[in-house]
């Protein structure tokens, strides 16, 4: 597929997702990065979003719970170019009932070339990057050209 570019704005749209066993770790990370996070637009799956908003006071647009379709809602926003990066503290050691949704979410993030942190170390690297506060051009699939070639 051909590529095109999209401009990520300086004020990023950031998805925050965590499996149950990693919600306390994400809360700790969000609390530590609250000052930077409040300069961006935040989204989360339902349970995670409500917990983070309640505990930190951050404005977070919460989807429905991940197992109920929240992972797919975040994936749809990524596909629409409405999410610029994702912090997803997932649990690789415990299977979750909605594992196909989780894999689809990670896959769609890769397809649309957005930065994804799946653990604290990677999240810290992303959040210390000077690119976090800048406009950034990223390559994405040229879906319009793909459709035009099909007709």
From TrEMBL:
GO terms for cellular component: cytosol. SMART domains: MGS. One of its GO terms (biological process) is methylglyoxal biosynthetic process. InterPro entries: Methylgl_synth (IPR004363), Methylglyoxal_synth_AS (IPR018148), MGS-like_dom (IPR011607), MGS-like_dom_sf (IPR036914). Transmembrane segments: none annotated. The active site is at residue 71. This is Methylglyoxal synthase. The lineage of its organism: Bacteria, Pseudomonadati, Pseudomonadota, Gammaproteobacteria, Vibrionales. The gene is mgsA.
